[in-house]
Design brief:
eight-stranded mixed sheet, DEAD/DEAH_box_helicase_dom, six-stranded parallel sheet, Rossmann fold, ATP binding, helicase, EC 3.6.4.13, binds adenosine-5'-triphosphate, binds magnesium ion, alpha/beta, RNA-helicase_DEAD-box_CS
């Protein structure tokens, strides 16, 4: 099976003309390279700052959230895997707090509002709080600011959404210290996330837990028709989930009023405090009338907190903020990490070979494990999906060049098992939670260890996950990956070991945490692995 990249590109452009490939998902972009992966492309109504957007989002686009009942059903189906999920969560420690600590083992311990408790226990079948939830929720209910770090897939979303809904319910019913009366376009809590898909997902989760509680939830992000978006917010936004660009636009324009704001949450906080987003975040919190840190509760959550963002984080938090952490910027231990040597143009063939072998083994591509394939460029995500589809592995792609309607459609098809394989750029690297996603393939190795941790963290969330990373052997990030594995006492696979040996022995295990490359500005496409940029900086965690 020889690969001719020119041929693939030619076919790709024909596919564009003919209106699609893989699934019946509609038109494909011609994968023009741009500077932005789309994840922070929120600079106005049209996301891509790199000029022409292929497959433009229709001007009247209104995103469709999943139905709350479907979300409850999805949780219930996964409940078998939940039974002992908490046993395998990393332990977390509590820092910057001297008093007695409550670690909630049961939901009942903190007297949540009855409807909320029903939504958690009966309807979502979340039997027990996960460790990060048990540690953070009591502090949040006690009005502390929080910086919370726990591995990918450890349940951080509910750790901030649940207490916010509880506080909002109490405040609305007059049980809280201060009465909160819902007002048009005036949120009680704002949750910020770095990508539109993540904002949609957190919105859905918040809507799910808020079902029947009287707490309204709204979302705001780029490409959503601005008038309709405004309409959604006016219809009720006690909790507003948003990307930084659209949020800034709405707050500065006066469409959103922040005078009653009690909570500010940054999900994927280290990403949002990284340079490209931090300016937006700082602008938002400095808007006249935005409650200062002494007059709001600020919650920062991520699986990774590299040193370089700590200062920015501390600027947002009150001095008594509690730091709850697993002290690891490392991959989730539920993921078995594997490596395959493959380089240059052979990677697409290798990818096809692996997936075809799996399809044959399980009796068809429709029975395969759900697999997320990461690549480093938008063009390659389209090419990989096309190439797989042409080899009888139905696949679709998601990247910043695709219109928002197609991005969301691709994710929906992947979530609903319509396609087994999704080829993605780092627009999907963080936060995205797809049930029964068991395999992540890095067809191109990311340029920094933090992105690696988040990418492979799309699997192994409530059940065992597997990652396969294609390496050529010389990528600088491999040393860091190996160091993380040593630190977690994981055996280094032979392939990785011999690649490192050839490179002069690999990295020594760090004493505590590990040296990290600065997180890539993953709005920018990084070069493909063959020409991967050296990490720009390292630091001790
Ligand atoms: N208490 C619980 N019991 C069972 N399952 C849970 C519980 N809390 C969360 N989950 C499930 O765990 C999975 C991961 O949750 P979530 O997406 O919040 O992880 P995360 O920590 O935010 O990960 P990431 O760092 O990748 O964003 C979800 O599928 C969620 O439904
Ligand atoms: Mg998350």
């Amino acid at each position: 099976m020889a690969l001719d990249l020119e041929l693939v590109e030619e076919v790709l452009s024909v596919a564009v003309e003919q209106g699609g490939f893989g699934s019946d998902s509609g038109r494909r972009g011609n994968a023009t390279e741009g500077n932005f992966g789309g994840d922070n492309a929120e600079q106005g109504n049209h996301g891509n700052r790199d000029g022409e957007e292929q497959e433009r989002t229709p001007m009247n686009y209104v995103p469709q959230a999943r139905n709350v009942d479907d979300l409850f059903s999805e949780d219930q189906r996964a409940a078998n895997d939940y039974a002992d999920v908490v046993e395998h969560d990393d332990d977390v420690v509590i820092e910057n707090f001297d008093g007695p600590v409550v670690r909630m083992q049961k939901w009942e311990e903190v007297e949540l509002e009855p409807q909320l408790l029903t939504n958690i226990k009966e309807r979502s079948k979340y039997g027990r709080p996960r460790k990060i939830q048990g540690a953070t929720i009591p502090f949040i209910l006690d009005k502390f600011d929080i910086k919370a770090q726990a591995e990918t897939g450890s349940g951080k979303t509910a750790a901030f959404v649940v207490p916010i809904i509880d506080c909002c319910m109490r405040a609305k019913s007059g049980k809280g210290e201060e009465l909160f009366e819902s007002e048009m376009a005036t949120p009680y809590a704002i949750i910020i996330g770095p990508t539109r898909e993540l904002v949609m997902q957190v919105f859905e989760q918040a809507e799910k837990f808020a079902a029947g509680t009287g707490v309204s939830v709204a979302k705001a992000y780029g490409q959503y028709n601005i008038g309709r978006n405004h309409h959604e917010i006016r219809a009720g936004c006690d909790i507003l989930v948003a990307t930084p660009g659209r949020l800034k636009h709405f707050i500065k324009g006066g469409e959103i009023r922040v005078n009653k704001l009690k909570f500010l949450v940054l999900d994927e906080a280290d990403r949002l405090l990284d340079d490209s987003f931090s300016l937006d975040i700082m602008e938002i919190v400095n808007v006249t009338g935005f409650p200062d840190k002494n007059n709001r509760q600020t919650l920062l959550f991520s699986a990774t907190f590299p040193n370089q963002v700590m200062h920015a984080a501390d600027q947002l938090l009150r001095p008594k903020a509690v730091f709850i952490t697993n002290h690891r910027n490392n991959p989730n231990k539920r993921i078995k990490q594997d490596f395959v040597v493959s380089g240059g143009q052979g990677k697409l063939d290798k990818l096809t070979e692996i997936l075809t072998a799996e399809a044959e083994k399980v009796g068809g591509s429709d029975k395969m494990r759900r697999t997320l394939v990461f690549v480093n460029t938008k063009r390659m995500s389209d090419m990989a999906a096309l190439y797989l589809s042409q080899h009888d592995i139905p696949a679709t792609s998601i990247n910043g060049d695709r219109g928002q309607h197609l991005r969301e459609q691709a994710l929906a098809e992947f979530r609903s098992h319509k396609v087994a394989v999704l080829c993605a750029t780092d627009v999907c690297a963080r936060g995205i939670d797809v049930k029964e996603l068991d395999h992540v393939i890095n067809m191109e190795v990311p340029s920094d260890a933090i992105t690696y941790v988040h990418r492979i963290g799309r699997c192994g969330r409530i059940a065992q996950g597997y990652s396969t990373t294609f390496i050529e052997g010389h990528e600088p990030v491999l040393n860091e990956i190996a160091a993380m594995m040593r630190e977690s006492s994981e055996e280094i696979p032979e392939v990785l070991k011999s690649a490192l040996d050839q490179n002069g022995g690999g990295a020594a295990a760090p004493a505590f945490g590990q040296s990290f490359a600065a997180p890539s500005n993953f709005a920018n496409n990084v070069p493909s692995s063959g020409e991967a940029a050296a990490p720009s900086a390292t630091e001790d965690w």
